[in-house]
Amino acid sequence: MPITLDARKTWLFKEGSKDGKRQGLTEGRREGLFEGIELGLELKYGSAGLELMPLVRSITTIDKLEALKSLIKTSGSVDEFFSARGVTYARPRMARPFQII
Predict the structure, then answer these.
(1) 68, 73, 80, 99 — which has fewest CB within 10 A?
(2) Cα(9)–Cα(5) distance, rounded to whole angstroms?
(3) What is the pLDDT of residues 67-78, one digit of tens each?
(4) Cα 50–54–57 angle (5° rounding)?
(5) Is residue 3 part of a domain?
């Protein structure tokens, strides 16, 4: 006679489920911080702030993202924002716009 087991009741399944939930919550919090930081940068610094998002998205820890979010409130310019973090940032040079003659 075959023996059937419900895998959902095993300790291994329960532990995997807990880990998955934890990872999902962390990822959701991270994405929420990205959205909040993006909004803050756009509102405070305009398009220059949005240029920073690729750099912001490279940050992986929640603690650093929280610190970055707080720094947006206290800094007055993009340069001040980076000097407070100890990072030098060279804005990309934009091509000259076309002139119609």
Answers:
(1) 99
(2) 8
(3) 888 888 888 888
(4) 110
(5) no
